[in-house]
């Protein structure tokens, strides 16, 4: 049986529900076996890939998940061997324990081993979500890289751009032929493109710059999206002590420079992400689709959390929404043409 002393020395099994492993466990031969990928919401979200081999699960932690594209290698950190009984483990590791956080099964399956030595591992995965030929190769110490050797399963998949910029609204009045439009409230916040990728969130302003450091509370949104890759137009809104949207808090937040000042402001005046539109999804730009189609794709993401949600969209006559915005003291509403690709929405002041 493989060596599990390191694994056991790092855990208090009277507190953690993780299995300690037993003598009865047996592993795979050297040609194939089972594998598991576990989504681990620890201090930093990551995905653990574990291969059944020589009586243990040989393990790597992959911060951005299994790479779906051979053009994009992902860091893989070699971790301690785990017991075979960990292959179907799900649960919550208590805070204060090693790896404290929630563990979910992300994928399971079998693998065929083509090469295995101390510096390089080549396997063919046959899981429900992870499939294809991969190589893990050492780059130094515990740091390895994971590379997909096959073409993407989706041959039309594209690499996500490094920069996005939201379309700036155009001041207007209520459009004619209201049945061709969808309307949403404008809250006086900051319009951005939020990119969710590999459990992380980037926040692009109208210049295309990534200002994620300005909004530390949005890192939780990236973790909540998990492995989903999406570019979402959103309005970031902060509320004052009376629960009203306060546009001045946008300028105040962006004027802060130090990480500690940003964290304090985020604790006192956290911004809420209101998802309005979708410009990228799982390796494909969506900005060329009609808004009606983009909206359906956005709603399928089910964006709903403590500080993020999908903004309501109202197809048809926007007059009632405009009156409601006036009554609530909001700046106005936005209108998007249902049959048009991504373009600047109309802004109708209240």
Written account of the structure:
The protein is mainly beta and 350 residues long. The radius of gyration is 24 Å and the shape is elongated. 36% of the residues are buried. Helices cover 14% and strands 40% of the residues.
- Figure out the total of helices: 6
Integer-rounded radius of gyration: 24 Å
What's the CATH topology name of the largest domain? D-amino Acid Aminotransferase, Chain A, domain 1
The beta-strand count equals: 21
Output the keywords.
350 residues; mainly beta; D-amino Acid Aminotransferase, Chain A, domain 1; 8-stranded antiparallel barrel; 7-stranded mixed sheet; 21 strands
Please outline the helices and strands.
Layout: H1 5-9, E1 32-41, E2 45-53, E3 56-62, E4 74-83, E5 91-93, E6 101-116, E7 120-127, E8 131-140, E9 143-148, E10 170-171, E11 181-186, E12 190-197, E13 200-204, H2 219-225, E14 230-238, H3 248-255, H4 259-268, E15 271-281, E16 284-285, H5 291-300, E17 304-305, E18 308-310, E19 314-315, H6 319-327, E20 332-337, E21 346-349
Parallel strand pairs: 10-21, 15-18
Antiparallel strand pairs: 1-2, 1-6, 2-3, 3-4, 4-9, 5-6, 6-7, 7-8, 8-9, 11-19, 11-20, 12-13, 12-14, 14-15, 15-16, 17-18, 20-21
Give a summary of the structure in a few sentences.
By secondary structure, the protein is mainly beta. The protein has helices at residues 5-9, 219-225, 248-255, 259-268, 291-300, 319-327; strands at 32-41, 45-53, 56-62, 74-83, 91-93, 101-116, 120-127, 131-140, 143-148, 170-171, 181-186, 190-197, 200-204, 230-238, 271-281, 284-285, 304-305, 308-310, 314-315, 332-337, 346-349.
